Amino acid sequence: MRLFNRPAWRMLVALGLLLAVTARANAFDLLQLSLQLREPTVVRGAFTQEKYLRALPQPLVSAGTFVLAGDSGLLWFLQDPVQQDYRISAAGIAQRTPSGWKQSSQQGPAARQNELFLAVLQGDTEALQRDFDLQLSGTAQAWALTLTPRSRLLAQIFSSILIQGGATAERIELRETQGDSTRLLLTDIQIDDQLSPSEHHDLAD
């Protein structure tokens, strides 16, 4: 016995195709994530970083504020447990000294983490895809991006990296192959259309 006649069957098939196309059109993908993270001109906020080391029973905690300016770079103002200002840009990592900004010679995993962090905040998924397999889930309002290293070198440092957020990145977790991990929470996020004069000077210096 036929449950559906031919016209009804064709209508169901057409409806199924329409739903599939609509779902695909509404799916949140890497391009949309990249555009979403690149949209704000300036992002300011506070951060709390927890570094979990196998040799220590409690995490090392640091806190401060940050300013992200599009493709210009990131100002990272550490306030606790010590006060120190950093600038992360395409030119590398610089540290503020009494005589001005001084480029850091930081290399290895620490330098790589800072480069990755900047790429994530700037929404540079193209750069991330050169070194990682990316798996995105969720929606524009609540998404999660998992990075799995492709190269043998990075696989020796990281087992995976998890980024979560909404309009901007809000939580980053770096999991190292040796068992250590770093968790970064970004809070009190504010979006602006321009830098302050002092911020502009710091990033242009």
From TrEMBL:
Keyword vocabulary terms for this entry: Protein transport, Signal, Transport
UniProt record, GO biological process: protein transport
This protein's record includes keyword Chloroplast: no
Oligomer status and interactors: Monomer.
Transmembrane segment boundaries: none
Name of the protein in its database record: Outer membrane lipoprotein carrier protein LolA
